[in-house]
Amino acid sequence: MKNIIIVAIILGLASCGNKQKEATQQIAAQETNIVHLSKAQNANLKMSFAKPEKRQFSSTLELNGKIDVPPQNLVSISAVMGGYLKSTNMLPGMHVRKGEVLAIMEDQQFVQLQQDYLLTKSKLAYSQMEYARQKELNQSKATSDKVFQLAASERDNLQITLHGLAEKLRLLQINPATISSENISRTIKLYAPINGYVSKVNVNIGKYLSPTDVLFELVNPDDIHLALRVFEKDLGKLFIGQKLLAFNNSTPEKKYPCEIILIGKDFGTDHYTEVHCHFEKYDKSLLPGTFMNASIPVQSETAFVLPEHAIVRSEGKNYVFIQVGDGQFEMHEVQTGATDGGFVALKNADALAEKTVVVEGAYSLLMVLKNTPEE
Q: Quick one: which of 80, 107, 161, 373 is 20 to 30 A from 287 by CA?
């Protein structure tokens, strides 16, 4: 019985000790967020104060994307018929004008097509005369209707064949009206269909090219635009005609004024869509595929703000110091929003209502709290 009483007393004392220890730890934890300054420290630290104020706050939406061109300004050049590349002087970056010769190809198919056209044209001339003769004989009943109909059918078939061959020649940029037995050519020329510059060259002299091969890619930069990626939650902040400034990472100080012309409506699996913008002034250094950043001022909103200097960062979180007494300051965590004109929007401003917040000297208080001397 005596042993039982002794054990109970020991357990009771241990329990009281643990509770006292926990209470001491809680008080210490609370005290670690409060800075106590002596009169000398308070006099030496140059501090200024402010209270959260409500104001119209303009925020900026930061986006990224790349320079793009509309489909009608990007042209892939292919050969209509297969052949060998005889000559070209095109290099990536070269400027070309509409109608300029890009390359010369040669192949026996080109000769055969012109030959077939001329032979068909000659046969059609004879067939038309035969048709006229049979028509006259048929009217006088000197020949049967069947013979006349065969003549008419032969004439029609040759006309169809001749027209088809003429269209094939036009696809090769050969004018059928200029072909004769004296000027049959084994070569054809490929012409630039637009003004612009050569972005890709995929061929070399002597290579055989099929109709599916892309020889060159041409870009007309007159209508380049900026395609920006926008997350779905930010889409409501944008509108057609909205102004923005674009820049690239290599020369961020150089800004390019743009205007939103089209806002996408379809979202991908990543919840992003594209917003297309026109450059107000074309710059030759802006090439399709170049990655760009953009800053878009969005509609202003009312928010409680503090000066930027009032916010201190420690261990990945943002804090402010609130004056709670003479020489006493409590560190309070805050959630910050956008920054504008040296002020920061506060997302949890209710807890700071009418509180006096340290502006100048906030980092000095943080150093005192962390027992780290200032440099």
A: 80
